[in-house]
Design brief:
This is Conjugal transfer protein TraC. Residues 476-523 form the Helicase HerA central domain. The chain is α+β, with helices and mostly antiparallel strands and 826 residues long. 42% of the residues lie in helices and 17% in strands. Strands 1, 2, 3, 4, 5, 6, 7, 8, 9, 10, 11, 12 and 13 form a 13-stranded antiparallel beta sheet that branches. It has an 11-stranded mixed beta sheet with strand order 15-14-24-23-22-16-21-20-17-19-18.
Length: 826
């Protein structure tokens, strides 16, 4: 997305000639402002000339709430904000992000300044290959925990970078004391977080501990963070600096003037000195994506609009004088006085355009300093990393140069404190700063989450905790053979291992999950002719605490959905006459059986239907007859199975299609009764529904299912729909609402029709379409988790877990022959 001229709040193109002319210019400045600037310069000089490390580090005090006293009368706060899908997003979405960032930067007034930091922080060597992703639990899962941890640690070593990326926005205000700074900083914090939320960017203010961790990651790279507030007792003279400061800082390592040494690490800060004729939004992202430890820092200090206008007008006056001088010289020498030097002519055009933007296009002018910080264990490696940065920058028309003899100022300037000690700057407009996007290739690494694959872009692990999403409901979709079932089995295992207090329920219409559930110590409930399993659609044991009216309403909804499942294919749903008859008969069934102190069964319901005078009632009874008598009567009787085990698989692969839907709806009603209780249980229930598209054949079923999807999350229910074909499903309005109200999608290879449906539903860009089209391999796809979209791959190594996850027909047949069929209810 190039920055270009337009009338929709876009800034003018970055023109180095004009911006260079603006360097060093000054508008009118008040005496108070001059005094304040002089005081700030004096404090910076003291920092630079400090003889010990503690005085040198660029802040005076850090409070537990995260507010730092940077200098006398200056206070700052830092918010960390999450990544979003920008680089692969649609053009209109990218423009929306640009607009939001522009409004964020324009929010800051002339008496504040801000620092944008994007830091690639290495995962400590002590953690690589040694991390415990899952803790050992019961005997059934312990061996799989050990294998899974080993696999993920091996994959962690495969990561191209093994870096954690952080994005910080630090802002600084003036105040007499910290009490005066708190309301100012609090207002800015709230407004910034709210603005970032407009692009689904989650942000929070760092507390004191988090902020000190961020400082130490830049001040003492690769050192272990051991800070504890308890160490700062009244009896101790220690300050926060004592606990995060390095033992040594050498600003002339081996006589170098462009680098410095911190303990055993060599560091260098580079200056972004110039830009190409047109700013592109991927310039900074390409540097951030380098697989090396670094941070990119943007310091911006807004000018008052009157000062900015005076500055540009002053430059225009100066250029007018230059033009007059050039014309006089041309007349004296007999040249055509209308021919002006190209640089002067272009500079005036740019200055006039800039003046128009400042006056009419909601643009502001900022003093800008761009810094890039990197570090390595040796000077040789540091030089190689600097060469990589410079090479990428040059390829993106950025001029990046070392800061010779200014590394003292530079180190304090790359710490996320909000104070720029490097007195080298240029003027940029709002749009030119907003164009320097802080969003590069996305990473997803949420502590406590499950493994979903590796990023196709960085190779780093993709770890997601669905429980952190605003709406954890979701879908896993893909063509047969795309790796869909493998991914679902892997997520089920993630859930069981990562959340030992949660319960897992699977609706298994194809008989794919039995071996996994048995291996993990779960229970398999087999619904098939000849089993002694019975599920009663009229069971109310789980909702016995509710009023009779509420129970009757719940059960009427369920029986209506079951009756809809018995309709012929392609039906438009239950006729109103049928609905009225069914509602009447459900009520009669409960009333009659209450006299016998028992719950009704399908046989009771069937008998009452047969008694009704309407012909429609006899038709409905005829539809239910096969479920009351004969081989399919395992829905007729009192329930003899439940969810006592925290892992339950309901195997329906021996049932016909209509019978599967009937069984899934009956089991779904049991889940609803179990979960949706008041007050809600302190247990999260993960429900996996394979072939979920089969539930969308009738409007009544869709209504029932959509209500569960919409209301279940309030009761700790996390639903996952699994489907091969989704385009037909998404034609239903309720199904589309379910997608809209979901924040989790794991999409594998899609057929053309499904690809178009997901493109429209999720507003996929061309790049994102390429992650799920028919060109990708099995196991690859796109993970959507809230505002984060990560292309994934997964070459899962063969072993015991692979055998459990593998769903290839040959592998399943071999397992069945070796282990025998999964038995009935446990």
């Amino acid at each position: 997305m190039s920055q270009r001229n337009s009338n929709d709040m876009k800034a003018p193109q970055a023109r180095p000639g004009m911006l260079a002319l603006l360097l060093g210019g000054a508008g009118k400045t008040s005496k108070t402002k001059k005094a304040s600037d002089e005081k700030a310069k004096s404090q910076k000089r003291l920092r630079r000339s400090a003889k010990d490390i503690l005085r040198y580090i660029g802040y005076d005090a850090m409070y537990k709430d995260g507010i730092a006293q940077v200098e006398d009368g200056l206070f700052s706060q830092t918010i960390e904000f999450s990544d979003i899908s920008y680089q692969s997003a649609r053009k209109e979405n990218q423009e929306n992000v640009f607009t939001v960032l522009s409004s964020l930067y324009n929010y800051f007034s002339a008496d504040t300044c801000f620092q944008l930091t994007i830091a690639n922080v290495p995962i400590p060597d002590r953690e690589i290959g040694k991390r415990a992703f899952f803790e050992k639990g019961d005997e059934a899962t312990s061996k799989y925990v050990e294998e899974y941890n080993g696999i993920l640690n091996d994959k962690m070593r495969e990561g191209f970078s093994n870096l954690e990326r952080h994005r910080y926005l630090t802002y600084m205000v003036g105040a007499a004391d910290v009490d005066g700074a708190i309301p100012k900083l609090s207002r800015i914090k709230g407004d910034c977080i709210q603005t970032l939320s407009r692009v689904r960017c989650q942000a929070h203010a760092l507390d004191g501990t988090e902020r000190l961790r961020a400082l130490q990651s830049q001040l003492r790279p690769k050192s272990e963070f051991t800070f504890d507030w308890d160490k700062l007792s009244h009896k101790s003279s220690l300050r926060t600096k004592d606990l995060i400061a390095p033992m040594l800082i050498d600003f002339k390592p081996q006589g170098r003037a462009d680098a410095f040494r911190v303990d055993d690490v060599y560091c260098q800060v580079l200056l972004i000195k110039s830009f190409g004729s047109v700013l592109e939004d991927y310039y900074i992202a390409n540097i951030i994506d380098l697989p090396i430890p670094l941070s990119v820092n943007i310091h911006a200090r807004p000018l008052a609009q009157s000062d900015a206008l005076a500055l540009v007008k002053g430059q225009l006056d100066w250029m007018d004088k230059e033009i007059i001088d050039e014309q006089r010289t041309a007349v004296r020498k007999g040249y055509d006085y209308t021919i002006l030097p190209p640089e002067l002519r272009y500079s005036k055009e740019e200055a006039e355009e800039l003046l128009d933007f400042l006056r009419n296009k909601n643009e502001r002018l900022f003093r800008y300093t761009g810094l890039i910080y990197t570090y390595a264990p040796t000077l040789e490696e540091l030089d190689r990393q600097v060469e990589q940065i410079v090479s990428v920058a040059q390829g993106n028309s950025l001029g990046v140069e070392p800061l010779y003899l200014r590394q003292r100022e530079a180190l304090n300037s790359v710490l996320p404190l909000g104070n720029n000690h490097v007195d080298v700057f240029r003027y940029l407009t709002t749009g030119q700063i907003a164009m320097q996007m802080p969003f590069a290739s996305q990473e997803l690494n949420q502590p406590g989450g499950g493994y979903y694959g590796q990023s196709k872009q960085s190779g780093n692990l993709v770890i997601c905790d669905r429980g952190l999403l605003a709406s954890p409901m979701g879908f896993v979709c893909g063509k047969p053979g795309s790796g869909k079932s493998f991914s679902v089995k892997r997520e089920i295992t993630n859930t069981i291992l990562a959340h030992p207090g949660d319960e897992v329920i699977i609706f298994d219409p194809a008989g794919e999950y039995g071996n996994l559930i048995s291996a993990l110590g779960g229970a398999n409930i087999r619904l098939a002719p000849g089993t002694d399993t019975t599920l009663n659609p009229f069971d109310t044991a789980a909702v016995s605490d509710r009023s009779d009216a509420t129970k009757l309403a719940y059960k009427t909804d369920a029986i209506l959905a079951l009756s809809s499942a018995l309709m012929a294919e392609g039906s438009e749903g239950l006729p109103e006459n049928d609905r009225s008859i069914i509602t009447r008969c459900v009520g009669l069934a409960y009333d009659r059986c209450a006299l016998e102190d028992r719950l009704p069964t399908l046989e009771d319901f069937h008998a009452i239907l047969a008694e009704q005078p309407e012909a429609e009632a006899r038709d409905i009874a005829l539809r239910y007859e096969r479920y009351v008598h004969g081989a399919f009567s395992f829905f007729n009787g009192q329930s003899n199975v439940g969810f006592e085990n925290r892992i339950t698989n309901i195997d329906m692969h021996e049932l016909g299609q209509n019978m599967k839907v009937f069984g899934m709806l009956t089991a779904l009603e049991m889940v609803r009764n179990r979960v949706m209780v008041t007050p809600p249980r302190d247990v999260v229930t993960w429900l996996y529904i394979d072939e979920v598209q089969s539930l969308f054949g009738h409007p009544t079923i869709v209504d029932y299912f959509a209500r569960l999807w919409r209301e279940g999350r309030k009761f700790g229910l996390i639903c996952t729909g699994i489907s091969q074909n989704t385009s037909h499903m998404l034609l239903n309005a309720n199904a589309r609402d379910m997608v809209i109200n979901s924040d989790f999608f794991l999409l594998h290879k899609q057929g053309p029709a499904d690809l178009e449906a997901w493109t429209e539903m999720l507003d996929l860009s061309t790049a994102e379409r390429g992650f799920i089209d028919e060109s990708i391999k099995a196991g690859e796809g796109l993970l959507v988790a809230g505002g984060i979209r990560v292309p994934i791959k997964d070459d899962f190594p063969k072993g015991e877990l692979f055998k459990l996850f593998d769903t290839k027909p040959a592998a399943i047949a071999e397992r069945s022959m070796r282990e025998g069929p999964i038995g009935g209810a446990k």
